[in-house]
What does this fold into?
Amino acid sequence: MEKDISRRSLLCGVALLSAGLSSAATPAIAATGVKILKNGKVEVTLKSNSALKKVGGVVRVDGVNGQSIALVRTTAAANGYTAINLSCTHQGAIVEQSGNEWACVNGHGATFTLAGKNLIGPATKALKQLPIKATALVVTIG
Ligand code: FES
It folds into this structure.
């Protein structure tokens, strides 16, 4: 049986960026249409998250199996999404969106591109990518 995630149980943010992930983000709308499947995978319904129609759109989902994850539209292709775990690869703090980057909040200073590539240390590795499977209707993460 699948379990719906309530808005309250999630902290979801959506940001729109311009093509190529190169301009400032605008944190905005709470995402909807997110389910945790029995197998632990996360299903994001695309029609409920219009930000993902545009390259550079981001949907953030917190509190899923103890993780914070983000789904980023990286290309216009049908499978043009990247899912990342938002735990910093330095010491595990959750990163927060800052413009068109993810910034670690614990004061060490690491930053990452929205797709997870490490920009500034002390972290030296990219944010962990999660496998995805995309259809025209949903993206399943995990
Ligand atoms: S935990 Fe993120 S920079 Fe140290």
